Automatic annotation (TrEMBL):
Organism this protein belongs to: Graphocephala atropunctata
Pfam families: RVT_1
Limits of the Reverse transcriptase domain: 1-131
The organism's place on the tree of life at top rank: Eukaryota
Chain ranges passing through the membrane: none
Record's protein name: Reverse transcriptase domain-containing protein
């Protein structure tokens, strides 16, 4: 699905509510640092809940844990370029930045949210945005 599809679904829902004279509200959520904040243990449990277990679960555990990150800053002064790199830090949360799996893992992480919200409202989700 795309953001266009999500927007079209929202508009259809709003039009339907207006036609039915229903009270309608919308709340837009954009999770700050969404991919950086995922708890590895919770994500692994949710992966198991959607049927990812055995060797695949071991691969995901290896993929998520023990990662280290450093920040590199490049400064240019006239013709001199200098790179400074921070010490590496172990990442205890989140998924790798810019990874193809990041949005997919985030969606799996929040996959039970629409079911929870269904008792109260209709929800639309696209990656780290929720309406």
């Amino acid at each position: 699905r795309s953001t266009t599809t999500a927007a079209m679904n929202l508009i259809e829902t709003l039009i339907q509510s207006i036609e039915n004279s229903d009270t309608t509200s919308a709340i837009f959520l954009d999770y700050s640092k969404a991919f950086d904040s995922l708890c590895h243990n919770t994500l692994l449990i949710k992966l198991n809940n959607v049927g990812i277990n055995g060797q695949a679960a071991s691969w995901f555990n290896s993929y998520l844990t023990g990662r280290k990150q450093a920040v590199e800053i490049t400064t240019v002064n006239n013709t001199l370029t200098q790179k400074t790199t921070s010490n590496k830090m172990i990442l205890n949360r989140g998924v790798p930045q810019g990874s193809i799996l990041g949005p997919v893992l985030f969606i799996i992480y929040l996959s039970d949210l629409p079911q929870f919200l269904a008792n109260y409202c209709e929800s639309l989700m696209y990656a780290d945005d929720t309406v």
